[in-house]
Amino acid sequence: MLGAPGxxxxxxxxxxxxxHYGDPVGEQRALVRGEAVVDASHRGVLRLTGPDRLxxxxxxxxxxxxxxxxxxxxxxxxxxPTGRIEHDLHLLEDGEATWITVEPGAVDALRAFLERxxxxxxxxVADVSAExxxxxxxxxxxxxxxGPVWVDPWPGAVPANEGGSADTASYAAVATLEHPGAxxxxxxxxxxxxxxxxxxxxxxxxxxxxxxxxxVEAWRPRPGLETDERSIPHELDWLRTAVHLHKxxxxxxxxxxxxxxxxxxxxxxxxxHLDGSSHDLPAHGDDVVHEGxxxxxxxxxxxxxxxxxxxxxxxxxSLPVDAQLFxxxxxxxxxxxxxxxxxxxxxxxxx
Length: 351
What we know:
Oligomer: single chain
Mean pLDDT: 94
Order of helices and strands: EEHEEHEEEHEEEEHEHHHEEEEEE
Radius of gyration: 20 Å
Shape: globular
């Protein structure tokens, strides 16, 4: 959709789709009203078939997937043997196949991992990214005439099982009903790539600027931005939608269980409300500083249509929740001028 009127191309992880279409503030407001759609056709798409597909995925990822009913959307993570986040799978079971969408640029690595883990099981893994594209839109409806639909479970519930203990966990500093993500409905609609423009039709287009600003407001983590080579799900409050705590063994489970049962994560996700008197925004990887010392890094920064400049950041768990912080724009790039921006901390993951 980069040929649409006013389209300005995004860069970084969203290269290949539009950053905005000339009115990023208006596009955000249209998304909030449910009146716009986002081109997410740079996401990778896999289609899994075969009778063993769900039990197999159940055994190698973090979510309980055996016997998943047709029409169910969920989220699951692929972890390293030491529990670090490698992939986030947006998963939809339609009764005949399992559809998975993943971050831009991640589909080849994920498919290679799945093929290595397939052994003699009755599963076929197909990369259908060339045939199917993703459209994102603010809706919780699981049905569409256009194609399969994945409904984002974030922020999810933390229900108790029959034994009285929850199958998921929350590390958030607020109750689920007060979580800002509850105000952000979101779904991905899979459409034939050749018919992408027709699927958009006459609806208003919004770019990734608008979608990312609303994601930041909802405290929704994104792989490759909120994650790095050390990230575990607890730091990002990701157990609430992507990790089942009472299922069988899977790669990385020991770390998940140990941190959940015996301690707290070494880092925690926060939201930063940035000084709006400057036109600067920190970039991914820029330093977060307290009393002249680096205490974390910016993961995503955005301009929100109501909140102004905001960011998600990973900081040390021991950092006081009332600490006076600065996000140092330019600090993540050698040779750039460093510009400290006052940053008020809003607690997401409790210390």
